[in-house]
Specification:
This protein is an alpha+beta fold. The protein has helices spanning about 10-40, 110, 135-140, 145-160, 165-170, 175-190, 215-280, 285-300, and strands at about 1-5, 10, 40-45, 50-55, 60-65, 65-70, 75-80, 85-90, 95, 100-105, 115, 120-130, 195-205, 310, 315.
């Protein structure tokens, strides 16, 4: 069947062939549109990420990790690594991380040059490690949050270093500077509401300027030698003085013990004499005789082979140890009596 028009004549078979050719193109176009819609509806957050959903640029919600859906074309998603530890470097830049971190050959003197409390210059290089704590604040509260955060770091470190002497900054004050700077920087983050939380601040290298570094090294060596000599003197002191104090204390204790013994002996003798005197007053003759006998009993054994005759006792005393006279004879074989 032919269809005749004013200008053309169409064959029905040809028209059917044209319609059949158009169907695959339509399916391909529908598939492409479906894929575009799918990619604009479905998105996935990694395990360390959250998704901040914006509708016409306005915050709507924060989605957790996993496969999520959104409205196509009118909603957008900004992914933030809230579980990842982020890092910023000051005074140096890391070129590569392999077995050992290599630093760039230049120092950023504008960042690292600082004035201490005693008006000396120190070159301070440090690293701050932080995390995104509040994604909404991070995206909408502060403009250029990373650059602002760098300026906050410089302001805090300069203020902390400016409150301390150059010796504290270079030697004993590093831990205190790190902890104080972390607290102040966290307070500043809460004040700015930038959504960041500070994990730690690490001072990498703290040195005097290169022009004065040799002199500074000589001063450090002199101080180390001074500390060594002081420690040696203290060691000698700790060996000699405690020993001398122990010996002095021992001598004092011995003297106190001897004095106590003498005092107690004297008191005992005095008490004994008082008791003896009381007995003597009751029977003077008997007491005198007993005292005489006791005294002679203590003395005579120490004199060797001698005889003492007592007129009052009218003869040889019965307590005389005659056994000690055996074997003591004169040249004539007679016993000698004095």
């Amino acid at each position: 069947m032919d269809i005749k028009g004013p200008d053309q004549v169409f064959d029905m078979d040809s028209l059917k062939k044209i319609q059949i050719k158009k169907k695959p193109i339509q399916w391909i176009l529908l598939g492409i549109v479906a894929l575009i819609l799918l990619f604009n509806i479905v998105y996935q957050n990694e395990p360390e990420e959250v998704g901040v959903v914006l509708r016409f640029g306005k915050y709507v919600k924060t989605t957790a990790p996993g496969l999520r859906l959104k409205l196509p074309f009118i909603e957008s998603v900004t992914k933030l690594p809230v579980q990842r530890q982020l890092k910023q470097e000051f005074g140096f830049r890391t070129e590569a991380i392999a077995q050992r971190t290599r630093y760039s050959p230049y120092n950023l003197l504008e960042e690292s040059s600082m004035l201490s409390g005693d008006l000396n210059v120190a070159i301070v290089e440090w690293t701050v490690q932080y995390k995104i704590d509040n994604p909404k604040e991070y995206l909408f509260k502060v403009r250029d949050v990373e650059d602002t955060f760098r300026d906050m770091n410089e302001a805090v470190i300069r203020a902390v270093v400016g409150d301390r002497t150059i010796t504290e900054v270079l030697t004993i004050g590093r831990e205190e500077i790190q902890s104080t700077a972390k607290i102040k920087l966290q307070e500043l983050c809460r004040l700015y509401e930038n959504g960041l939380t500070i994990d730690q601040i690490i001072l990498q290298n703290v040195n005097p300027p290169e022009s004065v570094q040799p002199s500074w090294n000589e001063v450090n060596q002199a101080e180390q030698q001074k500390d060594r000599l002081i420690n040696e003197a203290l060691g000698e002191y700790n060996q000699v003085i405690p020993r001398a104090e122990g010996e002095a204390q021992q001598t004092v204790l011995q003297a106190e013990g001897y004095a106590l013994d003498r005092v107690n002996s004297a008191r005992g003798e005095a008490a004994r004499f008082k008791e003896l005197y009381a007995e003597y007053r009751l029977a003077p003759q008997v007491t005198r005789q007993r005292m005489y006998l006791e005294t002679m009993q203590n003395i005579l054994p120490k004199l060797g082979g001698k005889l003492y005759l007592d007129n009052d006792a009218k003869g040889v005393m019965p307590l005389l140890p005659l056994e000690s006279l055996q074997g003591i004879t004169g040249s004539s074989g007679r016993r000698e009596v004095q």
